Amino acid sequence: MKEKQAVALVAHDNKKPELLQWVRDHIELLAGYDLYATGTTGKMLEDGLKDIKSISIYKLLSGPLGGDQQIGAKIAEGVIDFLIFFWDPLEPQPHDPDVKALLRIAVTWDIPFACNRASANFLFASAKIISEYSREAPNFDAYLNRNLKK
């Protein structure tokens, strides 16, 4: 088991201030996790949390430049345990296929994720989170063997 679990933090432009406020509201809890973020979100969080020394964020590329895919890869590798992605359903995104792929990866690898403040609050209020939730990685052997037989 990993020493610390990891949370990925992602937000579309119009949702970045809301994510920053959510992180500030949950800073004591989040300080116990490794935090990853796409590049622009990570920079915004660092700037907005300058006064809090206990937080460091691993910044990846900006979402449209591959950061969403990097987060997805880290989920598939078992590095990231939770995804908080405040996405904006009312604003078209040029990298929408990447966003959908990230959400598909989160579901495929069965990690808990939240797409708004309410679901993030419920996720981190969960008793499983408080008592060191340990996810069970899905077994894809049957899927892989089926595809090899074709």
Entry keywords:
alpha/beta, Rossmann fold, 8 helices, 150 residues
Description:
The protein is of the alpha/beta class and 150 residues long. It has a single domain, classed as Methylglyoxal synthase-like domain (Rossmann fold), CATH 3.40.50.1380. The protein is 45% helix and 13% strand. The protein contains 8 helices and 5 strands, in the order E-H-H-E-H-E-H-E-H-E-H-H-H. It has helices spanning 16-25, 27-30, 39-48, 67-76, 96-108, 117-125, 127-130, 141-148, and strands at 6-11, 34-37, 57-59, 82-86, 113-114. It has a 5-stranded parallel sheet, sandwiched between helices. Strand 4 (82-86), helix 5 (96-108) and strand 5 (113-114) form a beta-alpha-beta unit. Helix 1 (16-25) crosses helix 3. The longest helix is centred in the last third of the chain and has 13 residues, at 96-108. It is globular. The model has no long low-confidence stretch (mean pLDDT 89).
How many β-strand stretches? Answer: 5
CATH class: Alpha Beta
Order of helices and strands: EHHEHEHEHEHHH
Number of helices: 8
In quaternary terms, these chains amount to single chain
Task: Return residue spans where pLDDT drops below 50 for at least 5 consecutive residues.
Answer: none
Give the neighbour order of strands across the main sheet: 3-2-1-4-5
Output the CATH topology.
Rossmann fold
Instruction: Tell me the domain tally.
Output: 1
Full CATH superfamily name: Methylglyoxal synthase-like domain
Beta-sheet strand percentage?
5-15%
Which of globular, elongated, flat, extended, rod-shaped describes the shape? globular
Question: How much is the radius of gyration in Å?
Answer: 16 Å
Q: How would a textbook summarize the main sheet? A: 5 strands, parallel
Distance between the termini: 36 Å
Q: Could you report the average pLDDT, rounded to the nearest whole number?
A: 89
- Secondary-structure-based class equals alpha/beta
The percentage helix is 40-55%
CATH architecture grouping: 3-Layer(aba) Sandwich
